[in-house]
Amino acid sequence: MSKRKLWGGLALGLVLMLVVAGCGSKSSGDGEKIVVGSMGSDAQIWKHIAESQAAKDAKLNIVVKEINGGVEMNNATKEGEVDVNAFQSWAYLVSYNKDSNANLVAVATTYLEPMGIYSQKIKDIQEVPDGALVALADNPANTARGLSLLQAAGLIKLKDGFDLGTGTASDIVDNPKNLNFKLIDDTTGPRVIQDVDLVLISNTVALEGGLNVLKDSLFHEEISVDTKNSINILATTAEKQNDPGILKLGELYHNEDTQKYIEQEFGGTKVPVDKPISYLQE
């Protein structure tokens, strides 16, 4: 065999090897790449979805990027560091857009995680003492949400037209127990529970602290029109809101496999809500 034929055969073999190798590496990266920003238990759920057969069938390559902090997460979405985020309630998104002069939009509803009132000092919500110290999350949406929950528990009365996105303790018109309020970073609720009489904790944070809102809280939210502002959503930029891949994410969250996984992992504390965004806007 001539050297020319030998080198030609070797070159052809190398090309075939590269083609085969390329075909083999394609399987893990097929489909539209979507970066989902998330945190805590939500990130755990989206990692499960990313590896699911349903995601593969939808031809989506979902990459989960964990970012701590709600404002930081929304900023990353606004700036294109992530395509869509999964962590916040409708009220939180509305508040962020207002405070940051941003225009993030909701594209799907996911669940309601009941906020709970917790205590290590009090065993019954009816036994709250006069002058009790209450810890509330120091961000507009969760401050207002916590005050609304205290009203539902019969501990305070808020003014008519209370803003569920930006309301504050100054909107209390009746405080028969003379409750005192302390604002805290909303991720520290489980750690300050021993230092206050009552603490309002969102369920994602409660779960991370080993608390189950259905079993461990003195009082918690129920699904109703009064709590629709607390429904969690997927959020993206206005420019990406009609992206077919992003729109498929809501379907993936609500499919049977995902819901079974969530029930097993979180004991019913993430109540599924599959409503159109118009329901939140009414």
TrEMBL record:
Pfam families: Lipoprotein_9. PROSITE patterns: PROKAR_LIPOPROTEIN. It is found in: Membrane. It is a lipid-anchor. Its main location: membrane. It comes from the Bacteria. Keywords: Lipoprotein, Membrane, Palmitate, Signal. InterPro entries: Lipoprotein_NlpA. Gene3D superfamilies: Periplasmic binding protein-like II. PANTHER family: D-METHIONINE-BINDING LIPOPROTEIN METQ (PTHR30429), LIPOPROTEIN (PTHR30429:SF3). Belongs to the NlpA lipoprotein family. This is Metal ABC transporter substrate-binding protein. It comes from Paenibacillus aceti.
